Amino acid sequence: MTDPLIYLIAGEPSGDLLAARLMAGLKQLTGGRIAFAGIGGEAMREEGLVSLFPQADLAVMGLAEVLPRIPRILHRLGQTMADIRARQPDAVVTVDSWGFTGRVAKRLKAEGSTSPRIHYVAPMVWAWKEKRVHQLAGRVDLLLCLLPNEPAYFLEAGLPAVHVGHSVLESGADKGDGEGFRARHGIPPDAPLLCVLPGSRRSETSRLLPVFADTVGRLAADRPTLRVVLPTVETVRDEVAAAIRPWPVPVTLVTGAAERYDAFAASRAALAASGTVALELALAGLPMVIGYRVARLTAALARRLLKIRYVSLPNLLMDRPVVPEYLQENCRPDRLAAALGRLMDDEAARSEQLAGLAAALDRLGRGQGSPSLRAAREVLGQIAGKERV
User: Fold this and answer.
1) Residues 126-134, mean pLDDT to the nearest whole number
2) DSSP for residue 216
3) I need a surface site. Which of 43, 61, 382, 384 has the fewest CB within 10 A?
4) How far is it, in rounded angstroms, from Cα 268 to Cα 266?
């Protein structure tokens, strides 16, 4: 009997991390008797995936950002479908990035594929595009949800949906070695260290790095010993490295999860793009400020469609501004620097944010077991159900 083959598709680095932890969970539950194929990034590669093509080809967000890349994305969609047909996997697990993965699921259903279609990470239908509830129900067999409030939206539409929790809780972001990091990189123990995280897509880094550079310059004017650490990912590493060369302070560029989490432990505060990183920083106990910009067309559409007051996950979980958010025209160096200065210098401000972040993690399910193992059990259950039919 051959080992079951799981076809995984993760279109961006945050999905890559979720999928990699799912792969580890599947290997643990099967004693390693499982095989993988599909599309992913560096974390999935470490778990044994040979990606069909570079994940960077899919890591783009926003209407204005996607439009010029449509021909390449459609080409990659055709490649993906051909590969799935050839491999006939026991299950197809798509992770987030519904703009691409949803098209894969739609085509698989239209072709009559018998491989269970499992989608991991529910689109935020409670924030915008409620019609996606029915879209998902028509394309996938099971939805794995990160947040506890999400399954109800989809169960009502007849789509089996299960809350498995967010695997960021088992990422190890809270286990970094700050002292070791400073020693390895020659950062004095008493130097204020700012962690800068400008995103994992080129569309993010190109807009945020100039703003973040000016912000760092303003902070350094009052803190002559300021140092910066910038964890990045392979999809944007070269662009980021080139952009930070003229920065006015010493910058340590690092890659990989271990260095990233050690950097969190060594830092005093963080300046970050919006995304899953906010939960990693929360788990690490590192106070943060969120800055984010998208293309004007994307921003205009978002303002018309979004029904939420916040974009960062800690704020969404708590329904209040635990973390300062500076978006679009408010994402300005003077405002970012002022907010970061408070977090670096004011112990009361730091303590207030850290208490809110801890409460957000509790709501996310901290201490309630392994989300990745729960997700892995659901995937294996779908395969077993297919075999019984």
Assistant:
1) 63
2) H
3) 384
4) 7
